[in-house]
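Lecture 7 notes: from sequence to structure.

We start with a single chain of 192 residues. Read the sequence below before looking at the structure.
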Amino acid sequence: MEKNKEFYNEVYLKGGSKQEYAKEPEQSIYFPVWDKIRTIIAKKERIFEIGCGVGQLANILLKNNKNYLQGIDFSKVAIEKATELNSSYRSEFDVGDIYYFDFSSVFYDTIICCEVLEHIEKDVEIISKLSPNIRFIFSVPNYNSESHLRKFDNKEQIEERYGKLLKFINVYEFSISKKNNNKIFLVDSLVV
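Now the structure, written as tokens:
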């Protein structure tokens, strides 16, 4: 069952598993994924981030002069922490629920959605609301967690779920735990 915003507020207050949400972005296990995103996005691309969390990816993109327009998250605590981490860019972060968000209200070239789709029941419905020909960069895990509704064991499972909505450009694989063989798949795609 999908977790509510109170669950995530508590997670972000506590810093998450192994304090990942309290770390500097470069110290996080997710840094290799975020750094890859940094390298594949051109400076001119207007970026909108769904589920920005505490703003760690935004911090990397903003430090590297990427055109980060807005990040939303339905957790008020996450947005408070995102604005603290990115204090010069406070207006770029808003509390917003993607189930009710009007995607036509934002002028963007690229949507980033890291570690979000596995948490929501209506992931396919959200992607179907996106404008055609928009670049959609997202990541999903291959492991279970208390808040995950699904996981993806391989690239084929990701394509099976989202392939009718997206044209896959590249799929990158990142190991985040050798002990558990935990991986993150980063997908660079276009909305069809």
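The mean pLDDT is 95. Keep this in mind for problem set 3.
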